[in-house]
């Protein structure tokens, strides 16, 4: 029954409202002003108290950054004791990176528009920083994102489906057309086209993150079936379950190395104000409901659904663990379980914040580190900065997104809009 619990609850609870309402509620300026006078909410997260301002406490704005790239000698800034260097460049939007057990590095080149639709393989067998091979591993894809090697298969999550290809370790390309084992709802609001992948420890299950089709359900909740959540499947694509739902746009996923919990980085909703709603990273409970689109941060109701508030779902909403700032586009996520960084980083999490398009001042455009102590999160801190070139003009050098680690313990950061992957290592 778990496969229908929240998926059908989400849809079934909204069929009546969809018949009666084509859109969520919109407010005029006077109504927004009245809502803005409501008191702030104070919520208790896993890292302490958080003040959530009233809806429309400030105007929602648009401030789209302009990527100017990195001049010779320019690079992001890491804490003292770390070295930043170019791992590889010359890509077309290197959005995500996956490292195979044999140390081959696979880079997805994909974008919202003018997508290269390619996976590139990088091979450095002797670890000297020079690739003995660099080439197209698979082309002709459809906005690919998540990758996974499991058994004798290489999995690629396109925006519209999960494909698996026959694969043996050391292959330099995928020759077959592959098999589409799961149909997925394509596209999505803004950049919600990404479909990430992760397997559990014994390889018996695969998890697929699927973002919402809308900002807050404005196209009708019938368009959100199997979206805004994480799906669980068997490796052959059978046995689909809704693992967790009410998660607006989950992207990066990883397993907490101490507790074994699945964690994800989530983009929250827009158009409630300059500082609403904070993005977050959180543990993901099986069968859990996280509120979208009816509430946020537990039981804070989204006023756009006040005519049909879905109180029964709001009451079930789980508080996310760690807020990481509003409109940061926190996408990349990985736990650090190596030993080459200082001990404080062991079992902590890195978050790649792609950066805002609707906040002034800009938010995100950095890599954040969240320390974990005995498997429990602590307040976030900046790790890799320097991506904003000029706050006033909105110019940025690049936009960090995918985060992964190499077998030697160094960190890779995909800077997709500047077509470079940065390597951060301890000196």
Automatic annotation (TrEMBL):
Domain Pyrroloquinoline quinone-dependent pyranose dehydrogenase beta-propeller: 78-274, 316-425
Database matches in Gene3D superfamilies: TolB, C-terminal domain
PROSITE patterns per record: PROKAR_LIPOPROTEIN
Name of the protein: Pyrroloquinoline quinone-dependent pyranose dehydrogenase beta-propeller domain-containing protein
């Amino acid at each position: 029954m778990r496969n229908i619990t929240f998926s059908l609850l989400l849809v079934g609870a909204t069929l009546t409202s969809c018949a009666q309402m084509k859109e969520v509620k919109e407010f005029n300026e006077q109504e927004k002003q009245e809502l803005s006078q409501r008191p702030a909410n104070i919520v208790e997260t896993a890292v302490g108290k958080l003040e959530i301002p009233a809806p429309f406490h400030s105007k929602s704005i648009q401030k789209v950054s302009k990527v100017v790239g990195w001049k010779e000698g320019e690079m992001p800034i890491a804490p003292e004791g770390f070295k930043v260097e170019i791992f590889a460049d010359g890509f077309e939007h290197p959005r995500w990176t996956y490292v195979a057990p044999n140390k081959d590095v696979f880079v997805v080149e994909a974008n919202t528009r003018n997508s290269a639709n390619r996976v590139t393989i990088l091979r450095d067998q002797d670890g000297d920083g020079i690739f003995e091979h660099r080439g197209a591993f698979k082309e002709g894809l459809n906005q690919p994102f998540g990758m996974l090697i499991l058994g004798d298969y290489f999995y690629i999550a396109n925006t519209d489906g999960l494909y698996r290809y026959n694969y043996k370790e050391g292959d330099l390309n995928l020759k077959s057309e592959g098999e589409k084992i799961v149909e997925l709802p394509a596209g999505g609001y803004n950049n919600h086209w990404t479909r990430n992948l992760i397997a559990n420890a014994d390889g018996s299950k695969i998890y697929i993150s699927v973002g919402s089709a809308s900002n807050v359900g404005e196209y009708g909740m019938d368009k959100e079936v199997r979206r805004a959540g994480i799906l669980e499947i068997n490796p052959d694509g059978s046995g689909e379950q809704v693992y967790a739902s009410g998660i607006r746009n989950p992207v990066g996923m990883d397993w907490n190395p101490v507790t074994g919990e699945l964690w994800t980085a989530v983009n929250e909703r827009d158009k409630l104000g300059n500082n609403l709603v904070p993005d977050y990273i959180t543990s993901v409970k099986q069968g859990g409901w996280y509120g979208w689109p009816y509430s946020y941060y537990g039981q804070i109701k989204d006023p756009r659904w006040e005519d049909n508030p879905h109180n029964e779902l709001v009451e079930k909403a789980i508080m996310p663990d760690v807020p990481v700032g509003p409109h940061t586009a926190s996408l990349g996520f990985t736990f650090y379980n190596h030993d080459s960084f200082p001990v404080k980083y062991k079992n902590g999490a890195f978050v790649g914040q792609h950066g805002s398009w609707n906040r002034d001042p800009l938010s995100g455009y950095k890599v954040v580190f969240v320390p974990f102590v005995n498997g429990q999160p602590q307040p976030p801190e900046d790790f890799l900065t320097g991506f904003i070139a000029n706050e006033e003009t909105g110019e940025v050098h690049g936009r960090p997104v995918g985060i992964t680690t190499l077998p030697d313990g160094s960190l890779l950061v995909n800077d997709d809009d500047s077509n470079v992957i940065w390597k951060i290592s301890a000196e």
